[in-house]
Amino acid sequence: MAQSKQATILALSGSLRAQSYNTGLVRAAVKHNSGGAAIEVYEDLALLPMYNQDHDNATPPQEVVEWRSRVAAADGLFIVTPEHNASVPAALKNALDWASTEPAGGILVGKHVAVAGASPGAFGSARAQLALRQILASIGADVLAKPDVSVFHCHERFDAEGNLTDTFAISLIGELVDALSARIARS
């Protein structure tokens, strides 16, 4: 029996902040990955120009070409979002716009996606995740419903180096990555 290729997950933090707790969640996903999939981290969100349909043609900006290529090559996405004004940050929405419009349109349709997030507030990133799920559903992505990973009071759950230390949050991140890997394996 031939061994199947290991699935690839592209992980993305919607935060541009250098000491972002959400980027810390991405690092935790990589660190606590049980090995069901290889996790690659996309770190160039700040380089994507704001979406402009005038530039979305046969020769879009190189940063967009690279982003679209990485999304298309991945078997699944692991998107971690902070909450900005009860929604997702503009940079994250912008990246999704570039990945969902023509001529790239279609690379997110059916793409398996897991969503998580962190916020210092009492509700974590629950409202941002809801908005992100609505965006992804409208694009046609296959978004996992569970487990729900919304790390509230996140400033209390990371050490001074930005490492996630909360054992419950670590276990939830691991479960979410495993659930995404399992969904990819079943497809």
TrEMBL record:
Domain NADPH-dependent FMN reductase-like: 8-151
Organism superkingdom: Bacteria
A Pfam cross-reference name: FMN_red
SUPFAM superfamilies the record matches: Flavoproteins
InterPro entries attached to this UniProt entry: Flavoprotein-like_sf, FMN_Rdtase-like_dom, NAD(P)H-dep_reductase
Protein name: NAD(P)H-dependent FMN reductase
Species of origin: Streptomyces hyderabadensis
Organismal lineage: Bacteria, Bacillati, Actinomycetota, Actinomycetes, Kitasatosporales
